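so i finally got all the pieces together for this one. its two components total, 274 residues if u count the protein bits. some of the lines might not be protein, just check the labels. i wanna see the whole assembly predicted at once instead of chain by chain like last time, that was a mess tbh
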Amino acid sequence: MKPTRVLGALALITLTGTIALGLGLPATEEQQTYARFVAIHPPLAWTAYLAFGVTAAASALYLWPRTRRARWDAVAEASAELGILFTGLTLVTGSLWGRPTWGVWWTWDARLTTTALMLVIYLGYLAQRSAVDAGPARAKRSAVVALLAVVVVPVNHMAVEWWRTLHQGRSLVSLNPGGQLDGDFVAAMFLGLVAMTLTYAWLVVLRTQLAEATGRTEATALDDALAARRREAVTT
Amino acid sequence: MSGYVIAGYALTVGALGAYTVSVVRRLRRQRPMREDES
């Protein structure tokens, strides 16, 4: 069995487990059944951080002359796209959690605002990529943009410590022994972290393969078209 | 079970599933093209 398929199977199994464990969590006195969001919302946010971190790392590897490969540019693009997907889902699940517990779908709170900012910055990253033709110049410029953009990630993570905010503290701290969460909730969140990370890893491999295949097709498209015209000229 | 919770889980699974299907389909479309060229 191919490693990519093993990764996909593991992602599917752990994701199914997360849904089963998450939806089976007991209602709490403070949050009622809404506490079940703990199995998906913090893991989605963590995976978005991971994705943008990988985009920055791949971009740094592309910029460094010794490690420069077109593949790093493809990884950076694939990971940014996935980061946007995970950030979008973080905002949606957060909004669905916030409405019944805070009473609002959205508020201009430090964590929420920096998350929205993170989404907009990376949408801009993808927009500037699609504005010009593929090639080394675009790859270099995109790598610089990605290294600047990643600054928003630690700011977003630390927003709950640096500013007064409606959002709870850093969820990853809850995984520490002696944290505020009960065992069932910690287990569900931990499984969610594993599931989302595996899903991300699987999808980033597939998306990178797609970016490379598209790049090869685009690179040979002009040569193929010229060859076809020459064949037509010979036969007529 | 709260509708908010169900909606959150359904949207997450739906979005990840739709993205996966989109990538796999585009990848399959690219592969036959490459095979035709060779």
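Chain A touches chain B at residues 15, 19, 22-23, 32-34, 36-37, 40-41, 44, 85, 88-89, 92-93, 96-97, 99-100, 199, 203, 206-207, 209-210, 213-214, 216-217, 220, 224 (CB under 8 Å).
Residues 183-235 of chain A form the longest helix (53 residues).
anyway lmk what u think
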